Amino acid sequence: MDNTDVSVVIVNWNTEELLYKCIKSVKDKTSGLRYEIIVIDNNSADGSALMMKREFPDCKLIESKENLGFGKGNNRAAKEASGKYIFYLNPDTELITNALLGMFSFLESNKDFGAVGCKLILPNGPIEYPCASTYPTLLNNFCQLFLLNRIFPKSRFFSSRLLDYWNHKDSREIDCLSGACMMVRKDLNNRLNGFDENIFMYAEDTDLCYRIKKEGDKIFYLSTEVIMHHEGAGTKKGKSRNFPSLLKAESNYYFFRKHYGNTKATYFKLLFFWGSLFRTFILVIITPVCIGKLTRKDIDLLRSLDKYINLFLWSIGLRKVSNLI
Questions:
Q1: Which percentage of the chain shows pLDDT scores above 70?
Q2: How far apart, in whole angstroms, are the C-alpha atoms of residue 162 and residue 139?
Q3: How many CB atoms within 10 Å of residue 155?
Q4: Straight-line distance from the first to the last Cα atom of the chain, in angstroms, rounded to the nearest whole number
Q5: Are 23 and 102 contacting, i.e. CB atoms less than 8 angstroms apart?
Q6: What is the pLDDT of residues 127-136, one digit of tens each?
Q7: What are phi and psi of 311, to 5 degrees?
Q8: CA distances from residue 124 to 40, 45, 57, 121, 173 in whole angstroms, order as listed
Q9: Taken in order 123, 129, 135, 140, is the CA torsion positive or negative?
Q10: DSSP tag of 41
């Protein structure tokens, strides 16, 4: 497509129904610019590719014979993009506002910014704080694991990387955007070679944002544009319920090694050893031994306990993320 303003790039894996709603929302909500939609399907088994051919023949479909993951899949699709900007969008999202135009207009008017994202909300209304965050550090991981961000919710010092003290309702310059919704200048994206393909999923967006800022460009969070996010729709279909949390830990460990060095990465893993032990201890105390019917709260506590036991096992090398992909 000639003179395309924005190339919408979507990586799909077994989310046929949500993918349909996502693309339809882009078509229904977008006006005032020229755009194309490129979908790469990561070898879905749910008929996603057939749906695309039937319902959206005007969109470009790339059918991968394997699950490439999020970063590698996006890079493969971005090579086909003809737009001035690349808009990375999750298939489990729906545009609420004319978000493409809002972000496009911002980047057109602010040449010193290399990327922009917008407000992500959950289906029941709350803002999803990962839409605007800071880089992972030993301190903010410590505060999250040992609940200091909850004990001191208004404190900047004790905040997690999600900047808990801020309600995310105003626009501002930011360190990191969520890969679920990120518009990047194509020339900048090409210079950086897109996402790091060593990261299967999760910290690839943090890594890209980190490299964008090292390149000298700034990043902006635009709260006036809104997209709804059905978080984790794809990863819920994985082999294990704990797949997302384990993969996040593994991906962030890679980020630490790549950008902060092996020593801090070792401390990161050690932090998860003690932090997951602490969380497990707390959960064992507060989780009731239930006889009979479990309440929803009981189930949530038991799932949290299972998660932190698995994170502890990961920290000592007894839980391999590669076995779950």
A1: 94
A2: 13
A3: 13
A4: 35
A5: no
A6: 999 999 999 9
A7: -65, -35
A8: 28, 29, 32, 8, 27
A9: negative
A10: E
- Scanning the structure block, which residue is given the tokens 């997690």? 160
Give dist(CA 253, CA 264) in Å, integer: 9
Tokens matching residue 163:
């900047």
Q: What is the mean pLDDT of the chain?
A: 94
User: Taking Cα atoms as reference points, which of 91, 90, 67, 89 lies closest to residue 17?
Assistant: 91
Q: What is the pLDDT of residues 251-302, one digit of tens each?
A: 999 999 999 999 999 999 999 999 999 999 999 988 776 545 678 888 888 9
Going by C-beta distance under 8 Å and a sequence separation of 6 or more, which residues neighbour residue 67? 13, 42, 43, 325
**32 token code pair:** 């005032």
The residues spanned by each domain of the chain are 6-236, 239-323
Residue with the two structure tokens 């959960």: 283
Top CATH class, 6-236: alpha beta
- Residue 168 and residue 164: Cα distance in Å, rounded? 9
Q: In terms of Cα–Cα distance, which of 315, 206, 314 is closest to 323?
A: 314
Alpha helices in the chain (DSSP H): 16-29, 48-55, 70-78, 99-109, 138-145, 148-151, 186-191, 204-214, 243-259, 262-286, 296-315
C-alpha dist (Å) from residue 253 to 76, 180, 199, 268? 25, 21, 10, 7
Exposure on the CB side of residue 194, measured as CA atoms within 13 A: 21
- 102's CB contacts (< 8 A; 6+ apart) are 118, 222, 224, 225
Length of the chain as a residue count:
325
Q: What is the DSSP letter of 183?
A: E
Query: CB of 126 within 8 A of CB of 45?
Result: no
d(CA 152, CA 238): 35
* 171 CB-contact burial (10 Å; exposed 0-12 / middle 13-18 / buried 19+): middle
Q: What share of the chain is helix, strand, coil (3-state, %, to 5)?
A: 45, 20, 40
